[in-house]
Structure formats: structure tokens, C-alpha cells
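Newbie here. two chains, one complex. Structure please?
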Amino acid sequence: MMGSENADGFEETNLNAPREDMENLDLGVDGDDDPLKKTDVNGDTSNSGYRSTMSTLSTVRDPLSPPPTVMIPADSDPLLAPSSYEDFRSSFSSKPISSDNSYIEPPSYADVIFSPFDENSDSEINGADDSSLHSQFSDSLSRSPSSSSSDYIKITVSNPQKEQETSNSIVGGNTYITYQITTRTNLPDFGGPSEFSVRRRFRDVVTLADRLAESYRGFCIPPRPDKSVVESQVMQKQEFVEQRRVALEKYLRRLSAHPVIRNSDELKVFLQVQGKLPLPMSTDVASRMLDGAVKLPKQLFGEGGASAVPVHEVVQPARGGRDLLRLFKELRQSVSNDWGGSKPPVVEEDKEFLEKKEKMHDLEQQIINASQQAESLVKAQQDMGETMGELGLAFIKLTKFENEEAAYNSQRTRANDMKNLATAAVKASRFYRELNSQTVKHLDTLHEYLGMMMAVQGAFADRSSALLTVQTLLSELPSLQTRVEKLEAASSKVFGGDKSRIRKIEELKETIKVTEDAKNVAIREYERIKENNRSEVERLDRERRADFMNMMKGFVVNQVGYAEKMGNVWAKVAEETSQYDREKQSS
Amino acid sequence: MESTTEQPRNISGSMQSPRSPSSQPYLSVSVTDPVKLGNGVQAYISYRVITKTNLPEYQGPEKIVIRRYSDFVWLRDRLFEKYKGIFIPPLPEKSAVEKFRFSAEFIEMRRAALDIFVNRIALHPELQQSEDLRTFLQADEETMDRFRFQETGIFKKPADLMQMFRDVQSKVSDAVLGKEKPVEETTADYEKLKHYIFELENHLAEAQKHAYRLVKRHRELGQSLLDFGKAIKLLGACEGEPTGKAFSDLGTKSELLSIKLQKEAQQVLMNFEEPLKDYVRYVQSIKATIAERGTAFKQHCELAETTKLKEINLDKLMLTRSDKVGEAEIEYREIKAESEEATRRFERIVKRMEEEIVRFQEQKTEEMGVAFHQFAKGQARLANSVADAWRSLLPKLEASAAV
């Protein structure tokens, strides 16, 4: 059903409008809650600041941590820096921001050492006692409640390689990076249990995201990784490439976790078709003009017959150069809406929608807050582990020193006591670090859902823009009608009829008919999107609650496990130094 | 004049069992009840010093006096002057930061440190017989003030001590002797000791630094747990049931643990970091004693040399039957007496230090053992609290997740 609406004339949705288009519009509207300008920042919606720390993460990666490609489990994305939340909030209010946010200061916790305690080795390191508990939480994307355990689809992104654009120029083409995308699945849609790989570049991912946004209006589509406006030199750097690889993997996995999108043609094509990605890259004016599909001049200056909006294009929100006229109209409409002029007929449902929107906004604020505090907690745990370790080391040095210089037995005794303390401190330090790497994985769920909140906003925006289209068309009809009536009245005064006026009347009547049809289509589309919204939000709420509960459980289980371990270690030292227990000896 | 021939009595102090039979000599001191007095810049803390004893030298079985920090400094300076060679127990530092000076935490830590200071003196076989100690413990406040004002300025300030100490280190050749010979002990054992003390200070300072940071980390972790708990509660309120209740419980536990962490931070500060700091101070006190020994050694060497020269001169004069013989003989006898005194002083320092080192090592092993034990117990208790608190949530979380 989703695919059937994909008629030929695909328009780009404003979800992924290239920045240039944004600049061309120059409607001079700033800071309005204008659904047409739902995009933020770079004109990139999807991820804006969301994962942009990815681009700066590796610059502060702890030197002790093993190379990222091997060690960092793709799911365990460290939490975002607070600064990127500004981008979030602004994207909701659709304020245009300066687009220089590619380099957001990485959070200090990003120094968390991802010691080799990834999902696979958890059970080894932690021993038999709680291996079962840990293996449960190995995949932070586990939405086990919603997906049935029998079918699976696992996507891996790997093996980045430099490639060159074929070009006839002497200079040669641009270089770009491609990634190998391997899918392992047993879903019937992909032809039963199989494994296959393709090579894709980032541009292909953008295309995929754009096409999905068009096809699945009203859906909560996971946001794609940032475009990252950086110099080409940086683009080639290993850190950047690695961050992008991780981001792409997360994105594709999220897509495949979505119960509807995982079955989409676009995704299937993306994952399976070898060679060039057979999806239209963009549906902008230039390419369509070449196809002869655009009657640009008449649309731009349109009065008269050709000013009617082609029906199928009503399905998409107004976008791009050719839609200037439509945009002006819809803008006029939204302005008149704001001024409380003509009351749009669909107002009564809006209240519930607005409430829901408000609630989502609240929720998002709380998730942001919790995510920030989680980040502080992670940092505090890490610092504790570090300092404990340093303390242990200092005492080990002292132990060695006293032993070497010992002239009295009391020194040797003390050296021994210090050794026990130092050993415990070093162990405790390690436990803190292990605990922390697990905590990061669990609390990362908060992070994941921030991305999903963006997807919800996208879905809501789809609905708003569809409604605006309906309202615009609705308001056009009366004015067209009036013009017809005026012309008929004027024409009837002329004896024998007014040839030119009659012709005009005919044209207008035709326009009215087309507009009427368009209106009906728009209303159907609006209803469809509303329904998508509803079911998606319901699904999301359900999944989110389940995931949060799992997250908390995982977090708590970890805290218990490691606290027990630390308790044991220190109890041992207390035992070893029990001769110094003054509480017992005071009489 | 101190009496050096008296045998140290086995006096028990407040650090041991206070309920020793009354026939056995005891001297027990406690420093309590800090009270802020005065205003503004001149504000200071006064302490109650309670002495319980059955020693004949003291006025009665119990005496209470009011003392301030500078009185303790007076006592320490006097003891340092009179009992060279003994490692005088260290005092807590004078705080430079105005605001911090009167925080409850600081006041309590200082009180505890002063209490330890006096008790160490009371337990020391030689120091406990000091007249200055008796003055400190018994004199009324006016007398104490008078003593304090008289004595400041006469005795060396720490800066002077450090300078003397540097002289010992730098091997400055002696101008009086006119020789290039460095006037310093070079016995292997003593060299070893000096090296040990210096290195020890470095190691201890590092350990203490990390211990202090660890206190901070406890506080920071406590704070972040508090904030996290609050945030989770708010998030739960947004989500509605059953998530809401589960999150609310979780947030509450988090806040609870935050309090435990703050408490443990304070414990670590008082029972672990402070003993380490005290250890460092003790080592610094030893360094001051080493400087004193260096000075005494120099004096002993110089006077011995001078005596020899005077003797040679006297012999010369006697041979030539000069009329200056009488004068020279008197001079010679005086110098000889001084030299013998200087040698005695030096040797007493050496002997004392030998005993002190043994005491010091034993004392430190004991004190650090206690500190380690308390630290380990505290950490174990904390870890168990954490485990218990989080564990109590699991049944509810299981139940909610099953929904």
C-alpha cells in the first residue's frame, strides 16, 4: 500500500531538501512553526546534531583503547554532548541555525575506555555467575518484545574503501568512500535464509532516506546520519570514515528493525541490488525539466489553466523551485490560519493532536535531561575507577619502596598491608571501568530514543503539511467560484456572448474541477497520514516503554553485580587487616 | 634545663585503655568542644583541653583549660627546641583559605588532629615529662597568653629550619675552618636513612594526593546519582504506568545511594586521607630533625677543630713561657667544655633518633593499618549498600517488564 502512492512525479520532501533549495526559498520567515521549514541546521533534517558527535568522537578517543574498527561494538554509541541537544530543540521550533555545527565539542565521557568487554566477552570476563544476565543486554537495539524471535535480519557495515568517480576530464573525478553492506537474514521477502553484500557510498544512503521519507509519510522513520559538511581531506581521514561506518550501521539496523520499513522496496533494493543504486537520486527541477515533465514558466507565472496543481503532486508537500507558486499559496494560507481568518474545517481533531504533540515534546525534554544526567553518571563512574586505580598504583610503589628499604620488620608488615590495599584498589578500579562500559551500553537506549523522537517530529510534520495542502486547496475553491460568477455576470450583459470571457469561464471551470479533485486526493492523503501517525506513535510508545524497562533492568543488574564484586574485594582487605580493628578492642 | 637522666615512666595515656587501675600512673588528654570566638579577621577557634592524671607533677586528678591553635604551636616549638633528636609530633596546617577555616568539616578535622598531637606527646616516654607540656595542660589562659607572646620570635620559624636543612644538604664548605671539607655525616646507615626519608615523602605525597581525589570522586558520584535519580523520576512521570512507578522507585534508590556516597566521602576524608596527610607531616617533622642533627654535627665538628687549635696554641705558648698562657688556658678550657657539650648534644640526638626511628616505623605501621582497615570496611559497607539498594528493585522491575 505504501508503494502504490509512489507515482512518477516524485517530489522531494522537505525532509531532505538540499541546503541550496532552502536558501533559494528565502521566504523571509524566521522562527515560525512553519511545517515547510521543518528542516533545521544544514537543511539536513534527519540527524542534525544527533549523531554529529560521531564526527568528533575519535579525536578524543582514549589512547589506551584498542582500534575502533575491532573493539567498539557498533551498538554502543557513547552518549551525546549536551550541546547537540540545542540542535534538537531548535529543530523542533524550526529555527534556522548556523550550519557550522559539524564539529560539536565531544563530551568528556567519550574518553570512556571501551575495554575488551564487548557483548561477546562479557560472559568470559565476568565469570559464570552472571554471564546469563549480561548476554541479555548485548544488543542495545534489542526490541525483543516487538520482533518475533524466529526471523532476523542483521546488517553489518564494513570495509570502507576509496573509489574514484569515472570522469572524462583530465583532472580525474572526485574520490569517495564506499562501504560494504552485508545482510544476513531469513526473512522470506529477501528470499529465505541468505547472506549478501553490496557496496554503497554515503550519497546512496541519502537517496535511500529521501525516498523512504516520500513513501512513508506519517511514519516515524529513523533519522539518517548527518551529511557533515567537512573538507574533503577530513572526509578521507580514518577516524571520520570509521565514525561514519558506525553511524551507517546503526541507521541501517534501525531501519531493518522497523516492522514496516524493513519490508519496503527501497530498503530491499538498497541492500540487494549490485552496482549502481537504482533509486532516483532527486526529483528536483533541473532533472525533471530535462525529462520534459515540468511546465515551469506557466507554473511560476500562472494564472489561467495551467496554474492548476497536478493532482498527483498534491500527494507531496510543496517543494523546490517549481513549487514556488504553490508555496506562496500555502504560505498565504498558513498565515491566514494563524490570523484566525477562515477556520479550516478539520480543526476539531487538531486538539487531540496538539495534546499528543505537547506530550511528545515533554517526553523528549525528559529524555534529553535523563540522557544528560546519564552522561554525568558515566563520567563520575569512570573518574572513580581512574582515581581508584591511581591510588592503587601509588600504594604499589610504596610497597615496593618499603620492601626495598626495609630495615625493620614493622616496615615489612606495613608493606604487606599496603600491598593488600593496593591490590584491592586496582581490582576495584577495573570493576568500575567494566561496570561503566556496560552502563554506557544500557543508558544508550535513552540516546536511541532521542533519535526516534526526531522521527516522531518528522511524522507529525508530514501530517501538518498534508493538512496545510488540504486547507490551501479548500480556500482556493471559493475564490475560483467567485471569479466564475463574476465573469458569467459580466458576460451575460454582452449581447451574443463574449467569446474571450466565455473561454475564460470554461478554463476556470476546468480549473475548479481539477482543484476539486486535488482537494479530495489531498484529504484522503491527510487521513492516511493521520492513521500512519496514530499507529506509529502507538507502536513507538509500546516499544519505548519496553525498551526503557529493559534498560533499567540491565542497568540495575549491572550495578548489583559489580557492587557485589567490589564488596567482596574490600571485605577481603578488611579481613586481612582485622588485627587493626579498634572497634573490637576498645573496652 | 631538661633532665636527661630520668627514666621514662610507663605512663598510660588516653590512647590506651582509660580504665587502668588507679595505682598505675596515667596521663590522659582530650581536645574537645571547638568554639568560634571573636569576629571578622581576628576570629579564631578555641578548644577545651581536658587532662586526667594521677601523676604527682600535675595539679590534681582533672584539669580543664581553654587553648587555641597558636598555643599548640607554642608547645610544638618549645619541644622542638628542647628535645632535639626526637621526632616531634606534627601539627595540622594553618589554613590559608579564610572561608574554609570555619567550616564544620575543617574544624572537626583540626580538633581530631590536635587531639592526636597532644596524646602522642603524652605517650612519648621523654616528651611526657616536659615542663612545657605541664604548662600547656594546666596554666590558666592569661599565663598561657603571656608565655606565648614571650616565646614567639625567639624560636626558629619553619622557614629558618628549612634554611638550616638546606645548608646540610648543600655541603657548603665551612668558612670558619677555611677548609673545603664538607661538614656532614657520611656514615652509610645515616645516608641510607636520609635517602629513605626523602623518598618516602615523595611516595606518600603522591598517595595522599590520590586519596584526596578519591574523596572528591565519591562526592561527584554522589551528586551525579542524585541528578540521575531526579531525571529518571521526571521521565517516569511522563511515561505513565507501569513505567512510571518503576522509574520512580529507581530514582528514589538513586537519591538514597547519593546520600550514602556523600557520607562515605566524609569517612574516607577523615579516616584515610587525613592519616596519610599526617604521615606526610610526620616525615616532614623528621626532616626538620635531620636538619637539627646536621647543625649539631657541624657545631660538634667545628668546636672540636677549634679546641684542637686552641690546644696547639696553648702548648706553643707554654713552650715559649709566654705571659698569655693563663689567658690561653682559660680560653682552652672554656672551648673544650663547649666542644664536649656540643659533642654530647650531637650524640644524644643520634641516640634519640635511633630509638625514634624504631618507634616511628612501628607507630606508622599501626596507624596505617588502622586507616587501611577502616577504609576497606567503609568501601565494603558502601558496596554492600549499593548492591542491596539496587537488588531490592529487581523483583519490581521483573514484574513490570513482564507486563
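Moderator note: Chain A touches chain B through 66 residues (CB under 8 Å). DSSP finds 17 helices and three strands in chain A. Thread marked as resolved.
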